[in-house]
Amino acid sequence: QVQLVQSGGGLVQAGGSLLLSCAASGRTMYGINWHRQAPGREREFVASISKTGENTRYADSILDRFTISRDNAKNTVYLQMNGLKPGDAAIYYCEVGGRDVWGQGSQVTVSS
User: Fold this and answer.
1) Percent of the chain at pLDDT above 70?
2) Most C-beta atoms within 10 A of its C-beta, which of 9, 47, 58, 83?
3) Quick one: how far is CA 110 from the chain centroid?
4) How far is the C-alpha of 5 from the C-alpha of 93, rounded, in Å?
């Protein structure tokens, strides 16, 4: 069973940047999704990347500010978040697409 371990996150001022990482165990590559959930709100899709990295998809709310990428030599997927806004504050989770396998979550806090 694949496991995901997240790192990154933290507190940043509005307009700042953060990098989230999601490392998968083993050598098998998977398509990975990033989601986020803010207090009192439903979980929402943020971005996804195919197992080869050729295909990516983004939510409209973060388009042109966030970039998803991967390093298959490290079996790790990244979410580079630039131009952060207070509305981006949430717990961010990575997920193996279609397998209901989740990382532990990373807190992102954005101060105005």
Assistant:
1) 100
2) 47
3) 16
4) 10
